Protein 1
Amino acid sequence: MRVRRLTLQDFRSWHSVQLEAHSGANLLLGPNGVGKSNILEAIHVCALGFSPRSRSEKDLVRWGTDRFVARVEAAQDDEPIELAASCDLSGRKDVRVNGQAARLFSKLVGHLTVVGLYPEDLQLVRGGPELRRSFLDALVCQNDPAMVDTLRDYARVVKQRSAALKEPEKFDGNVREVLDHQMLELARPILERRMDTIDDLFPRVGRLHSELSGGTESVAIWYRGSYGEDDLPRRGQELAAHLETRRKRLVNAEAAAQTTLFGPHRDDMTILLEGRPARETASQGQARSLAIGLRLASAEILAEDKNRRPVLLLDDVFAELDGSRRKRLAAMLPRDGQSFLCSPHRADLPFEVDRTFLLEAGHVRETLG
């Protein structure tokens, strides 16, 4: 899948903009604050149904206006697809996939595959578990769009279950039993897909981290569940039985806390560097190499299916690296796909691009590559 055209109306800093993209490397060139990252953000929204910088769609509306529209026209083997997302200040959303209306932004997932590298990715290593869960689930859903509905249903059931724990007098025992059953049934496929995904990520991230850093540090990644034990059964009835045992053990604790204390919504992905938690011990350079490794490993996994070869979104990534790491990262990037790169300086990119867009205040113009 390749982006052919991006059209924005009142999205972030942009009043109106349209880009005709090249199938190779597209450079968005301009000073900081001119709106380069906003263009990448719009592509991300149209592909994944959420922003990498904000979970409130209302934040994407340009100041002084009441609604944004973002539209991507793409193609896979000359088969066109149009993805459009819109939201107003009241939170009312409109989604279109080839003109067909939908209510949820998540309906955009599965048509255009993207992987973004952002300056904020350092928090994938150093930040809280929610960021790593979101990273895993985005990769899972791009590989299997049906998981979008499973994750949404799981979140809904957990919310209902926690409400029942908070106000037990409003829910009889039968309702609680149904909610418990639904939660465990939905948790199992989420856990199975997350653990399988980590198995795919593990060797790739270690290799990519070494290539970028030029070192030989060992990297390990494992799934840390909120279940009490270190080893989580991988699938099937064994996993289901484990979840049920954990539920029974936490009956009193959950009643006291008045919330759901276990499940995929409380899990984490642990990253070890030289056997120690990278979140606590990794230097700035090590954390950045690990984060880039996570993103590029995601791109490799998705690219195994030629129909899911991702579009890369690189947001000023090279400016964050020293000269040697810039060259290593340039050598690691796949060059047979489409990419969009932001940079304030052309010299930051140690390779040629296919099309350059010069961004100035409120305007975009194409220049020679």
Protein 2
Amino acid sequence: LSDPLGAERLWEAAIERLGQVDVLINNAGVFEPVAVDAGLDDWHAGWGRTMQINLQASADLCRRAILHWRERGAQGGTGGGRIVNIASRAAYRGDSPAHWHYAASKAGMVGMTKSIARGFAREGILAFAVCPGFTMTGMAEDYLASRGGDKLLADIPLGRVADPAEVASAAAYLALEAPASMTGAVIDINGASFVR
């Protein structure tokens, strides 16, 4: 998804393989540092790559899903569908001085999700976001190890980071069972490390 046309190719491959899509879950992301005192080229490259993967590719896939569901409905098929965007607690809490771009990309994803929910609910297109804190994936493990995991865990009242299955459970609920009236909802999964 770092390629500006990657999301388009992914969508086309999914349609070719499946014929139709009912649910889109955007769960790709990068969490790569860029220092405030980095050279301008490195600064722009870091921001550009993060925004492309974390936000633009997700927006491109949301756009294709909405157009697909509209077309399907216009052809007499089942209109509507569901989008679940995996954002981050950083969308609300912010992040480290080396990760402004990550926080901004995830805040953009939450704003995009709410806009889709408000703009397309009448067409049966529902949108939800999940905002995990640290989740025990390779990305989080490396960061925890590099930043002194015990200090970071002390900031999580639950005393541990989320398990990927916990995030998956919330995403599956939103994708399959959540009532339509929940469209636009954001679910936090962060062990109470940030409570809105």
Protein 3
Amino acid sequence: MNKTSLDFLKRLMTAISPSGYEQDAVRAFRKEAESFAAEVRTDVHGNTDIILNPGGSPRVMLAGHYDEIGFIVTLIDSKGFLWIAPIGGWDAQIPQGQRVSIRTSKGVVPGVIGKVPVHVQRPDDRSRVTPLTDLWVDIGAKSQKEAGNMVSVGDPMVIDQGVTELPNNRLMGRAFDDRAGAFVVLEAARLLAGMSFKAEVHAVGTVQEEIGSRGATTSAFGIAPEAGIAVDVTHATDHPMMDAAEKREGKVTLGGGPVLSRGANINPVLYEHLLKTAKAHKIPVQVVADGRATPTDADPIQISRAGVAAALVSIPLRYMHTPGEIVSSDDLDRTAAL
């Protein structure tokens, strides 16, 4: 991965942008797109569309969502502690004790997710996972008034975790689900901007996937593509304790290349085209099968308007929906190239 692309990826990853609050990601994505594309649009929901070769045919949509899971402030109590509700799907074991960054109208406020220490828990509580409803956020305030001057009900927050470079071209951080996909569709658009081709291409950063692929629903309706490829992440099964998951989900290796899905949600002609393209350009790919609709932006794209030829290309990822998700930069480059 070249320095320009890596620097952009790191900027995109620092955005505090849980579902419904994607403004930071929109700004980063849009600013980078405008550095090479003549036409970039952001709709009322926050989906950002990079348009290449307008008027060409067929009309193709690439979609990667830049929202992430997080939390929202639901109550500021009399002692200045914040009570929260999840945005998106959380494993209740993950947030405990994590530092958070809260996006407010006055800037970013730091805090930590608190819980009752194990030393003073009842014996039966020690053997169970503390539910999200029993977690709160401490921002150091001494009163409701002081906390209320710092944050407001409805403010969003995310785990405070940046990007760390690991050996073997691996990157670790929160929100690679699915900033990795949004990054890839922008990088694909960057590659296409220097090429001549017949299609009209829409490379879209979408919103609110973590709460039901809402952004892909509205953006696909507006674009009316004839073919659509969602770019998301999928579970790498090459780490400990994934034997059972591998039998259900298929074998996926970090660094093994893009993952092509086959199944009910996937147009067979588009799948074969992706597979042949990968072979022709010597891009290694992995294949998984899904007998039902996929829980990705490919779903609403497929059934938009009168139907769209849809495909799903995924990036292998370890430790999904944790602050320490890991991807391979080689997989990101190969997916953009495909």
